[in-house]
Amino acid sequence: MPPAAGTSPQAAAPSSAGDEAALPGGRVLLDAHNCYPYSGRWTDRVDRALATGAPLAIEQDLIWYTDTQKGTSRSVVAHGLEEAPSAPSLREHFFERVRPYVERALAEQRRGDWPLITLNLDLKSDEPEHHAAIWTLLGEYEAWLTTAVKDADPARVMPLDVKPLLVLTGSNDAQQKSFHDRLPIGTRLRVFGATRVPPPSGTTDEERLMSAARATPEVAIGERATNYRRWVNFPWAVVEAGGQVRAAEWTTEDSARLQALVDRAHAQGLWIRFYTLNGSRPETSKALGWTASYNFGSLDAVQQRWRASIEAGVDFVATDQYEDFTQLLSMRDVTKPSR
What we know:
Radius of gyration: 19 Å
Number of domains: 2
Distance between the termini: 29 Å
Number of strands: 11
Order of helices and strands: EHEEHEHEEHEEHHEHEHHEH
Shape: globular
């Protein structure tokens, strides 16, 4: 039975026995960051991510592009408008690429690893037409998707009907209106949003950058899961002051901070994601199209944070180093993270 209104979000169970891995704290996954080409380069990112093995998460940035010459608009997989004219659609770049994996999973019904793939949508624009196009596309693949029934009480966390794919999106209120609020009661939710996090305090960029790590877990994660908002997304600066490029030696205090944030998220019924944990020489990062501010500077430094994230039970660890992270993850039993 669904949980009664007002109960803890942790009471919301999956709809079938054996689907517990889908719940917050059930497992630790690679989140393949920015898993799409930039200006025609790095076209193998989805293939690389899938080759690491499932379950995993894959991030896709979407933007609404209008071709002024043709007078048509469409949703494309791209970080910005400068890349949009030649960018692929989500159908082409993601859904049809994962079709063999999903169809095999549905045929075999080995539900223990479901969702096999979490699709993390980072919407770079929030036009109503963009949301409508995304909703329609998701409807075409609904048989693949993890869903939940919309209840009259939006705070009531309904059971998940777990399927091979899970779709997440951001915290923007406009997304909630499009993907939840406007829908009739009883409709199946195809995508789940993130909770809102308080903005960092301070009057300058420097003050705001350094303040994130001072917020208590209770302040940083003030919202509980709702039926629509089921995860929380943080930059690493909420763990280490100043983020990756300011990080010093990893300490027991840092581990305790990370664990406290993870425990708070799970107590609130939320999956938790941290982005983006990279470690390489600066010239390597630049050559591979990775964001400089996400770089700890060496593989050893980032591996310390990866290990800590795995041990803490972070649900989604975002990185551009898909293979390196998966190799480390495979050395540990993280089906049920121990404390």
